[in-house]
Amino acid sequence: LVRLRARLARSQNSLGKGLLTLLSREHLDEDTWEEIEDTLLTADVGVASTQELVERLRERVKVLGTRTPEQLRTLLREELLTLVGADLDREVKTESGLETPGVVMVVGVNGTGKTTTTGKLARVLVADGRSVVLGAADTFRAAAADQLQTWGERVGARTVRGPEGGDPASIAFDAVKEGIAESADVVLIDTAGRLHTKTGLMDELGKVKRVVEKHGPLDEVLLVLDATTGQNGLVQARVFAEVVDITGIVLTKLDGTAKGGIVVSVQRELGVPVKLVGLGEGPDDLAPFEPEAFIDALIG
Ligand code: GDP
């Protein structure tokens, strides 16, 4: 965790440092406030959140009078924490059924890191003593099932797969059936994320979801979003949120961007908390999203 924090800090703290430098200027004139706004927008904080934050900062700085670096840091930390939401429930739930395994569906656009995230999540669960079955329902991308199976072998989880181009819903069904037969604790289902048409996506994910729910409740639908795609990724995320009820967001590739502000805008946009973050390609590079650690890394 310490290592992950350090990595996050390296990639993130240009935003916080930039903000603190601007806020420390002797004269906080309109140009400076505009620069602060630009800094936030560039970091993908989003328009609404940027406006809200700048308004709060203006008020609080006015009340403050003197501005020591430590005061500014505390103030910025508090306001960013409020924006990110310190008290949201960010637990990934996997224990809905008493008799049946918990089921987690992983959705998102291809290339965002769905399969990798599914593998890493399996590793976390297995390390926690839970038995996991993987469902390779991404039958669109040819290599996805192999990739998932490799992850499964690496972490000690069985992979249920079907023929290439097969029906994702029937694979999801089989995976849950297998999970029940094996008395597994959790079934993780990797899905396809082709955004050809909204109805196509809706049909496919909707069917996977309905089929899974024949066995019992679905614990989580995690939406994987690539942090490096910024506002563009947000537009795509919105389409998924319209198609299935997302219960949590996994923000991947945070190691490759200084635009950590996407955490704020995606939660606000979709009304769903960021639960996990991806900080690299390796098996240990998935971490729970911790608002305080994140903000501290952001401010530096
Ligand atoms: P999918 O098409 O959504 O299933 O995407 P993949 O899981 O195949 O991931 C696409 C690429 O992104 C792969 O090269 C992954 O190794 C890489 N990737 C996934 N998550 C992360 C992350 O958190 N950080 C970095 N740097 N790369 C990641």
From TrEMBL:
Its main location: membrane. Residues 273-286 form the SRP54-type proteins GTP-binding domain. It catalyses: GTP + H2O = GDP + phosphate + H(+). It is a peripheral membrane protein. Its EC number is 3.6.5.4. The keyword Transmembrane does not apply. Keywords: Cell membrane, Cytoplasm, GTP-binding, Hydrolase, Membrane, Nucleotide-binding, Receptor. GTP binds at residues 108-115, 190-194, 252-255. Part of the signal recognition particle protein translocation system, which is composed of SRP and FtsY. Belongs to the GTP-binding SRP family. FtsY subfamily. Involved in targeting and insertion of nascent membrane proteins into the cytoplasmic membrane. Acts as a receptor for the complex formed by the signal recognition particle (SRP) and the ribosome-nascent chain (RNC). This is Signal recognition particle receptor FtsY. It comes from Streptomyces chengmaiensis. The chain holds residues 107 to 406 of 407 of the full protein.
